[in-house]
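Q: Can I see a sequence and its folded structure?
A: Here is a first one.
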Amino acid sequence: MEIVKAEGYVTVPGIGDVEVRLDLHDRPVAEPAFPWSWSGVISDGPVMPVGTEGEVHLDDENTTVGHPFVVITSAHHVSRIRGREHA
């Protein structure tokens, strides 16, 4: 499992756009041709309760399309997120 340090921002309803740094596990890809599982850890980010859904936008991608995620654990401004399918 490759772990990539990345910068970008998350878009979350009720919170808006917040810049974050995150560690990505199996980096998300745009429009995968097969089921693709990825997750990430956002440290020192916004407080996001478990179950919160949003999109992460990575600074090194030239796209306005984000990668949908759901928060799976959250404590002390550290959130673990898991990628989900585009709706």
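Q: Show me another, different protein.
A: A second, unrelated one:
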Amino acid sequence: MSASTYWSTTIRKADSRSPKEGAEKRLDRLRGVLRGVDPVVATRAWREVGDALQTITDRYAR
């Protein structure tokens, strides 16, 4: 099984169980991908993810 097939299947199964579990699997995949890139790029990507998650949290916390 290739990596893309593994992640597609894993994320699809997690999504069927709960949206939160699906999001956790997506972050696991992102963490794995960012492990292999330049640290500056990885830091910027995590900052953007954090900003997006904060926006979502703020929207649903009202």
